[in-house]
From TrEMBL:
UniProt cross-references to InterPro entries, sorted A to Z: Glyco_hydro/deAcase_b/a-brl (IPR011330), NODB_dom (IPR002509)
GO biological process: carbohydrate metabolic process
Protein name, UniProt field: Chitooligosaccharide deacetylase
SUPFAM superfamilies linked: Glycoside hydrolase/deacetylase
PROSITE patterns named in the record: NODB (PS51677)
Amino acid sequence: MSAELDFVARDTRVTRLDTAFRWPGGRHVAVILNLAYEAWSDGKAPGVGPMGNPLPAGAFDTNALSWGHYGVARGIDRLLRNLGRHKARASVMTSGVLAERTPAVLKRMVDEGHEIVAHAWAQDVIPATLTVEQAKADIDKTTQAIESVSGKRPVGWISPRGTPSRDGSRLLIEAGYLWQGDVFDDERPYIQTCENGRIVAIPLTMEINDLPHAMRFGRSPRDFVTMFDDLLANVLASEDQALVIDVTAHCHVFGRPSGAWAYEAIVKTVMERDDVYVATREEIADHVLKTAG
């Protein structure tokens, strides 16, 4: 494995996997099924919504807030049921505030074998905009809230917008985290080393992600399935190094009937294959440390 300086995280070294690295069973393609179960702080609304015409400056976007709440009201239940039909487990990015608002849902996730991924306190709490002290407090508050209601301490973290503090890796190591997903410069995990320890960085690949897919690019759910099928076929045929494909559904986007079927179609596909390693992010991190760490 080769080492280099991280060009985003402060005072951090990166050790990337060598070409011989493989997933369990000698497989070179891993698929992570992700859900995003998100909420906003009281008095805040999503910055993205279904309406194209902007409101006047200073107006509170009640439309976007109602649209974003769908994930809590309906989307999470539908997507968890869909995963359950195929005995599939997901890594669920979860806002800490939802530990207060929907504790039974977090307990259900753990009971059904899913991984709860700490996703900051709320979607409007973006670590890159915080001081080091504020970022540390957000990690502590979010971690404790999730653990207190789910009975399991989260070991993985992904920031809202995937936009961490430049001290984020060091702060997460300090808080005892195993992995973080706020990196986008690879399709394979790697190890970050700071002065206080190390953490596995698992890139959150964005190609099969419903929010940019539908909300930014205006593509259809059928396109979502086709893009995944094409991507999987091509990496199995042509890539000779291990990599990860993320499949991500936001509960307020593809948690709706119009998109949930597409996510489930992909779940069904990967769960029926034996040439793909389907794993949670915690399992990915564990394998990296056991075999390459």
